[in-house]
Amino acid sequence: MDQATLTPTEFSSVVTAITSAFGDPTRREIYLAARSSTDGVTATEVAKQFELHPNVARHHLDKLAGGGYLDVAVAKPSGGAGRPSKRYRATTKGDRLDLPVRHDDVLVTLLGRALDLLPRQQAEAMAEEVGEEYGRLMAASLGDVSDSQRSVRSALQTVADALTGHGFAAHAEKRNNELRIVSEHCPFGDAVMANPVICAVDRGMMKGMVSVLYGAEARVEIEASLPMGDSVCVTAIQA
If pLDDT is split at 50, 70 and 90, which confidence band does 3 have? Predict the structure, then answer.
């Protein structure tokens, strides 16, 4: 079943599963490393690459395997001496992250034109308010978020993963002591280029999600965006 045929309930389940598996930034990077390796990885290799205790590396790998994102194969050591080692390889389940989410071009275009009829400040306020409300609903749909309330950074990673599930191809990063969400794809398509005010919806979504996941109001500033001619959208978040 591809993403275009998912019901709203099924899609919510997919997003919940993704954020549960990748809510920890390190675990997400471990998955990406396993995914990029043709032969897969072992706990020892992951521990060395990410400077982790082997038991911690194994915990992350088993968590990903439990979610269906990695397959596990037991390989005997060369020469037959020593303990067998587990090798973890990425499955196709994580490929969902790369699939675009279905959206109605007519409705998005209509939204842009309707907002364009309003004074810009009023249109942005309305778009952000709608986005913020939807962002809170998105966060609530993730279920128990207690693990994500440890820090702003872990909350932002959960936000980025949820946005990716909605077609934004987003990731969280820290640069110059500033936490940011970088989106490499916009599901609103050409409509946002013609009506940049739609970007306020994204800003509101991030504010709404952070307020639920971290339990605090967030200050959100757009540093770069596709309508401004940038290659990616960059949003700085302080909570």
Answer: very low
